[in-house]
Amino acid sequence: xxxxxxxxxxxxxxxxxxxxxxxxxxxxxxxxxxxxxxxxxxxxxxxxxxxxxxxxxxxxxxxxxxxxxxxxxxxxxxxxxxxxxxxxxxxxxxxxxxxxxxxxxxxxxxxxxxxxxxxxxxxxxxxxxxxxxxxxxxxxxxxxxxxxxxxxxxxxxxxxxxxxxxxxxxxxxxxxxxxxxxxxxxxxxxxxxxxxxxxxxxxxxxxxxxxxxxxxxxxxxxxxxxxxxxxxxxxxxxxxxxxxxxxxxxxxxxxxxxxxxxxxxxxxxxxxx
Length: 273
Prior knowledge:
By secondary structure, the protein is mostly helical. It has one domain (19-272). It has helices spanning 2-17, 19-33, 42-62, 75-99, 107-110, 119-147, 157-181, 185-199, 211-217, 221-235, 241-265, 269-272.
């Protein structure tokens, strides 16, 4: 029992103990991302807005898309729904894009025996969480000023954030560790990220997925998080607790596996690099 409890809490205790260092590296990542850029942090706001504008125009005006959840759904509902989906997806996909090079791209830290390498992938997630928070401030402002009310169910939204962060962190640990040994993982991640864009319900409702496809896609926690987020932020529906239970538990399992795998492979990083 003691061993099991230690296994479950060890990564959480580790993150808490190294929080200051994680914060410093996340800050460094953010500053480096826009170093030399003419508009700097302006892109943190402009980029998601531009993406939302393009996707909304194409799918609402050209393809006349909708989620079909409420009868009086408008293009504004659809635009905000896309923005919610893209924001949650990018927290995951942006982590994947960087994680594979997090350890292999920092050989100097690897060769410092006392340096806690586990903080590097977490710093990537924290950096992306900062960008995520900016996008969701924009989403809440859009809901308030364009839809003129925030559903009471919106207070459940922090649960989606926790689930998404656990999934992203666990995946970051896994990919950063495996990326040390297999450099072509980054190419697979590019393909996987594109697939996630179309298989995570950004442009459609999970309720419209054909049963045969749903039997597979229902195991995608990103899709479930996006669908639940739209339910509680746009439609005023209570979360589907079965979906959330699976999403949270699977994300936490990935979190634990990622920490364990990283710790297991960590002693051999220096030999490879």
